[in-house]
TrEMBL record:
PROSITE patterns: HTH_LUXR_1, HTH_LUXR_2. This is LuxR C-terminal-related transcriptional regulator. SUPFAM superfamilies: C-terminal effector domain of the bipartite response regulators. The lineage of its organism: Bacteria, Bacillati, Actinomycetota, Actinomycetes, Kitasatosporales. CDD domains: LuxR_C_like (cd06170). It comes from Streptomyces caeni. Keywords: DNA-binding, Transcription, Transcription regulation. It holds the Pfam family GerE. InterPro entries: Sig_transdc_resp-reg_C-effctor, Tscrpt_reg_LuxR_C, WH-like_DNA-bd_sf. Residues 726-788 form the HTH luxR-type domain.
């Protein structure tokens, strides 16, 4: 019509334009005849919105056109109502009346318009896609070209057409939508909600009309360029319509749509999304949401949808027990993605059914969350109380509770002495392992922590448990414990290969908590292999994946790995900055906190702060002694502390620490070997450390000694000779004989010695007999004089 008006003006016509409003009013049409012979063009748009009186006035006026210098142009759009067609039908057969149908713009015209109005150069394929997306609607096409221009101005090079629709297209869609009748707008809303399940029949059921009327509505929307194959041509169009619906009206529409979709047998998660958007449910939907929809969401690894579905179900549950059960289910799902929300759900469930009932149902989850929050001692007390209420014949239940308790002990070594399971009792361990896969995977870690030497049997058991376990939310803590046991056994290559697979599995299941913790294990394995850049990358990725509160007391683990990796790659500025990061509460009560103290000591040592390094190493050692896990394969704190003592100039203290380390590394039953021809074990260690201090390579030397457990042989002559008056006698004794001899020299009786060392009195007597014979003494008095 604009083109007609422009042409008419150029030819001397007087032009007048009339557009019918949505609210029909009588339209007075005066005769356009005026004095003179100037022809007139009267453009009347949106005729479909005219009232009957105005239509009749126009037809009457049109019948007199042959005697007037007037050109009348009527514009109409497709509509559900055909009143205007009946009124205008009598004009169709008159010779001076013509009907023009709008044809699709040719691609060449679109290319020309894009170049002239928008400065765009379009390929033939892009032009065809844009025209198809606009659906022959010039307004939509211009909006798409405007959005395309914005993308190009923003730096996008030849964006794909599905990415083009933006704000301009959205506004054009809303303009078409708002100019439609109420019936068409209601249908458009239903189509946007039904999406891929929109058909004439489903649309009719949602809006409450007949399939025939729904089909005509789809035709109207298709002619407007918005709909194709009963769906909006682009998601942006559907989103624009949905955003325009008032809240209450949209909620009611979605509830009706959900009912229709459920009747059609649509996938439960699709129905759940509609109900979630409606933000409303009642008791009739709770079973469907809590069971069918949530199960499907979890099968698709969509935890977020499963949680939203279950929360919606909880709102429709009047029964407290069912609400608590559903809240517990939400907590299980959230434990792998959002531990803070998990704890909140458990708190609400406990308020509904009480702590005792909740512990009976969720002991593993509760103890895991309490360990994260530094409440391990309280969790152990609850587990013990729960175990006390079980029948002794319930072996499987006892094994599961003991697995929970050992998991706590694995993180909090101070609790190892409270465990009711004797880890040196193979019969009990075999019985519990047969009853519980989790127990079979967990006990090797505690065994490694409490054994003076890495236990090959525990390492083999951990390996078997890992290959026999599949990764799930319930098995993840036990899998982590088995991996940690293999780390202490120095099976770094095996751990690395296993964590590669487990990290991928956790990513597929969208379980960032376990993915981050597996990455932290991988970082430790990379450190053991000497792959420091890989260790740093894995540690940083693990820490970035979870906020610090979600790590809780375990945050010291990945942070320690990052510090050690930075030290070994000489990135000391970043290591210093990271080491100043505060740890969450209770971190230093965990084995992860021990590693952080050791790593921070290494940072201080690398930067020459001997006093600060020594303080960290000694604190680490005191905690290990107090917890009963003071073993070199856990953390070699004595070796590091000896290096710090040498750095600060205290050679005697360094020698004492070297002696202690060598004594603890000695295999029971075998005497320490004294290399009289070259250097003793402690002289080798002392010499290596002293040379490292001199050349500034102390950290690297400690790392090498930790891996080798002994000083590497050297062809250089000994620079130091370390002697004391007792070593030549003590070196003749085995590890066990030396401990007995030292206590006997202090005046302890055989009974006291037996109780202190957990030996029988006869064993103590045998050790003393061998000691007297080897040292050539007659009794305790001479023994005391000889070894002091």
């Amino acid at each position: 019509m604009s083109a007609v008006a422009k042409t008419a003006i150029s030819r001397g016509f007087e032009v007048e334009t009339i557009t019918f409003p949505h609210l029909s009013k009588p339209l007075p049409l005066e005769s356009p005849v005026r004095p003179g012979t100037v022809p007139r063009l009267l453009c009347v748009d949106d005729v479909q919105d005219a009232d009957v009186a105005s239509l009749r006035a126009m037809t009457g006026f049109a019948r007199n056109i042959p005697s007037q210098p007037v050109l009348l142009v009527l514009g109409e759009r497709s509509t559900l109502h055909h009143t205007h067609r009946r009124e205008l039908a009598e004009l169709a057969g008159r010779p001076y009346c013509r009907t023009l149908h709008m044809e699709q713009l040719p691609p060449t015209a679109v290319v020309r318009m894009a170049a002239q109005q928008f400065g765009l150069t379009l390929s033939s394929s892009t032009t065809a896609e844009l025209m198809q997306l606009a659906g022959d609607n010039l307004s939509l096409l211009k909006a798409l070209l405007a959005d395309y221009q914005r993308l190009r101005e923003g730096g996008a090079v030849a964006p794909s057409v599905p990415q083009v629709p933006g704000a301009c297209y959205r506004e054009a869609v809303l303009s078409c939508y708002n100019r439609s009748t109420a019936e068409v707008r209601e249908a458009a809303q239903a189509i946007a909600v039904l999406d891929e399940y929109s058909t004439a029949r489903s649309l009719a059921e949602v809006v409450g009309t007949t399939p025939e009327n729904a089909a005509r509505t789809l035709t109207v929307l298709a002619s407007a360029g918005l709909v194709a194959n009963s769906r909006f041509r682009h998601p942006v169009a559907a989103q624009a319509i949905l955003s325009s619906i008032p809240l209450q009206q949209g909620s009611a529409l979605r509830r009706r749509a959900a009912t229709v979709l459920r009747t059609m047998g649509v996938q439960a998660v699709k129905v759940a999304r509609v109900l979630i958007a409606a933000d409303h449910t009642d008791a009739s939907w709770t079973d469907f949401l809590a069971q069918e929809a949530a199960a499907q969401a979890l099968a698709l690894s969509d935890r977020e949808l499963a949680v939203k579905t279950l929360w919606l179900a909880v709102r429709g549950m009047p029964d407290g027990a069912r609400r608590a059960e559903t809240l517990s289910h939400i907590a299980e799902i959230q434990s792998a993605s959002n531990p803070e929300h998990c704890a909140q759900c458990l708190h609400e469930a406990r308020a509904l059914i009480g702590a005792d009932a909740l512990w009976q149902k969720q002991s593993s989850l509760l103890s895991e969350q309490m360990a994260r929050r530094g409440m391990a001692a309280e969790a152990v007390a609850e587990l013990e109380a729960l175990a006390g209420r079980l029948d002794s014949r319930q072996l499987s239940a006892h094994a599961e509770l003991e697995a929970d308790r050992l998991l706590l002990c694995g993180d909090y070594p101070a609790l190892t002495r409270t465990s009711s399971v004797r880890l040196d009792d193979p019969v009990r361990i075999t019985a519990f392992s047969a009853a519980s896969n989790r127990f079979a995977a967990v006990w090797p870690l505690v065994r490694m922590l409490t054994s003076e030497q890495p236990d090959p049997a525990a390492a083999e058991a951990a390996s078997k448990a890992l290959y026999a376990s599949s990764f799930t939310e319930n098995s993840a803590p036990a899998v982590l414990a088995a991996l940690s046991a293999l780390l202490y056994a120095k099976e770094w290559t095996l751990v690395h290969s296993l964590t590669d697979k487990l990290v991928d599995e956790a990513a597929v299941r969208r379980a960032p908590v376990w993915q981050a913790r597996f990455l932290a294990i991988r970082a430790e394995a990379s450190l053991g292999e000497g792959r420091y850049s890989h260790a740093a990358a894995a540690s940083e990725e693990a820490m970035a994946m979870l906020p610090t509160p979600s790590w809780g007391a375990r945050f010291g683990g990945p942070l320690a790995s990052l510090l050690l990796a930075r030290v070994m790659t000489s990135e000391l500025s970043d290591a210093r900055r990271r080491s100043a990061q505060p740890l969450p509460t209770a971190s230093l009560d965990t084995r992860h906190g021990l590693r952080f103290l050791y790593a921070r000591g290494q940072v201080n040592l690398a930067e020459g702060r001997a006093e600060a390094a020594l303080a960290d190493f000694l604190t680490c050692g005191r905690l290990m002694v107090a917890w009963g896990v003071d073993h070199e394969h856990i953390l070699p704190w004595r070796l590091a502390a000896a290096g710090a003592q040498l750095l600060r100039g205290d050679q005697e203290a360094a020698v004492d620490l070297v002696d202690e380390r060598n004594t603890r590394l000695e295999i029971p039953g075998q005497p320490m070997s004294a290399d009289e021809g070259y250097r003793s074990a402690r002289e080798q260690l002392y010499d290596v450390l002293a040379r490292a201090v001199e050349c500034g390579e102390l950290v690297e030397s400690i790392r090498t000694l930790t891996l080798n457990e002994t000083a590497p042989p050297s062809a250089r002559p000994a620079r130091y000779r370390i002697e004391d008056r007792f070593s030549r006698y003590l070196n003749k004794l085995t590890f066990s004989e030396r401990k007995v001899a030292m206590l006997a020299a202090t005046g302890s009786s055989n009974r006291v010695i037996a109780r202190s060392l957990s030996l029988s009195i006869s064993t103590v007597e045998q050790h003393l007999t061998h000691t007297y014979k080897k040292l050539g003494v007659a009794g305790r008095q001479q023994l005391r004089a000889m070894i002091g």
